[in-house]
Automatic annotation (TrEMBL):
GO terms for biological process: isopentenyl diphosphate biosynthetic process, mevalonate pathway; sterol biosynthetic process. It catalyses: (R)-mevalonate + ATP = (R)-5-phosphomevalonate + ADP + H(+). GO terms for molecular function: ATP binding; metal ion binding; mevalonate kinase activity. Its EC number is 2.7.1.36. The keyword Metal-binding applies. This is Mevalonate kinase.
Length: 389
């Protein structure tokens, strides 16, 4: 028997970084997914290893189960039903298990993903041999929530083949887990995100788990019923960066300038609250949609200015802002910044000719443009009964 899970990436419409410090943020899922498939070997396979195959990177990692038992003697079987953080000692052992896989230098960023996988696997499945295969449509480390969708899809696949979630094996196709199962997946994914990010707010794993458009503040989720199309151009500057380091940088700036940064965070809180109200308020005609879009554009520009105050913009992001402004379009970075992706609102009445022109100009700078489908479903699970199971 094999189970597959898929979890979406996300865009943050307002409030990244400030949300780590307790203010409100608004995010939407996007129609790009990470897929995780899990399979236990049959006795005839005679396999006694845990394998993780990262298909896009073209790398397969393998750990003998005995080695995992030695390194993490605390992981019991039957396993924990309550999500728990990885203690520092276990994290050291896990980091050593990841390091000995000799990850190529150019892909060393994967080490934290491997560590999150090992913690989730041993916590949820204990010491069973298995193979997990991962594929992702998301660019890694670009602000579209690749780490969260990785953790959510891995947690969902692992929980589906545990006692914790009862999977409807007879059903065909993708299924949305029920609310309690979503809560459990989300809590485990958050533990994985902590290993990758250091101090995540939880917004990325939450929007990846529940989908749609959400407002998130201090760990609490409010679902938003969007009453307007949000057509967002996503420009990937292709400048690599790492969310953990950027989040730590903002925290250090906050320690140096606590009063100023508190004012910045409060301003972001107001922006996110106003944005959530605009998105939810009914739009009766084109005129009122245009009015709402103009207010959203202004809020996006204000949020971008505050992200610059936090020190998370980048020369490539500024190039995108300048380019889109030439066409009177508003943009802001999305996710952790420092490179990665930038959002530009494409208003409903914008002509296709202008949209094509701005994309062509951005691509001539070496950036990659795409239009995101926003606010779709969250994590889904699909079971397949194979003949040899
Ligand atoms: N498909 C994947 N396979 C293995 N590891 C992954 C995968 N996707 C993400 N990761 C892990 O997450 C890291 C990237 O996470 P990071 O939080 O820095 O960026 P992001 O999640 O894409 O952006 P943001 O957090 O700003 O939305 C990778 O370096 C890797 O360790
Ligand atoms: C930068 C940040 O606010 C969003 C990353 O997508 C970090 C977090 O909230 O965990
Ligand atoms: Mg991330």
């Amino acid at each position: 028997m094999e189970v597959r899970a898929r979890a979406p990436g996300k865009i943050i419409l307002s409030g990244e970084h400030a949300v780590v410090h307790g203010t409100a943020a608004v995010a939407a899922s996007i129609d790009l997914y990470t897929y995780a498939s899990l399979r236990f070997p049959t006795i005839s396979d005679g396999d006694d290893a845990l394998k993780l195959h990262l298909k896009d990177a073209g790398i397969e990692f393998s750990w003998p189960i005995e080695k995992i038992k030695d390194a993490l003697p605390g992981s019991s079987s039957p396993v924990s039903s309550t999500p728990k953080p990885c203690p520092p000692d276990s994290l050291k052992s896990i980091a050593a298990l990841a390091e000995e896989q000799n990850i190529p230098e150019a892909k060393i960023g994967l080490a934290s993903g491997l560590a999150a996988f090992l913690w989730l696997y041993t916590s949820i499945q204990g010491y069973k041999p298995a193979t997990m295969v991962i594929t992702s449509e998301l660019p890694l480390g670009s602000g579209l929530g690749s780490s969260a969708s990785f953790c959510v899809s891995v947690a969902a696949a692992l929980l589906s083949l545990s006692e914790s979630i009862s999977l409807d094996i007879g059903r065909q196709g993708w299924m949305s887990p029920d609310e309690d199962d979503l809560d459990l997946i989300n809590q485990w994914a958050f533990q994985g995100e902590k290993i990758i990010h250091g101090k995540p707010s939880g917004i990325d794993n939450t929007v990846s788990t529940y989908g749609n458009v959400i407002k998130f503040k201090s760990g609490n989720l409010t679902r938003i019923q969007s009453q307007m199309p949000l057509k967002m151009l996503v420009t990937n500057t292709k400048v690599g960066r790492n969310t953990k380091a950027l989040v730590a940088g903002v925290s250090e700036r906050t320690l140096r300038h606590p009063d100023a940064m508190t004012s910045v965070f409060n301003a972001v809180d107001s922006i996110s609250n106003e944005l959530a109200i605009i998105i939810q308020s009914p739009a009766l005609d084109d005129l009122s949609i245009t009015g709402k879009e103009e207010r959203i554009e202004e809020l996006m520009e204000m949020n971008q200015g505050l992200l610059q105050c936090m020190g998370v913009s980048h020369a490539a992001i500024e190039t995108v802002l300048r380019t889109t402004l030439k066409y009177k379009l508003a943009s802001k970075l999305t996710g952790a910044g420092g490179g990665g992706c930038v959002l530009t609102l494409l208003p409903t009445l914008l002509s296709n000719t202008i949209a094509d022109k701005v994309m062509a100009e951005l691509e001539s700078c070496g950036f990659e443009c795409s239009i995101a489908g926003t606010g779709g479903k969250g994590v889904e699970i699909c079971s397949e009964v194979s003949l040899d199971s």
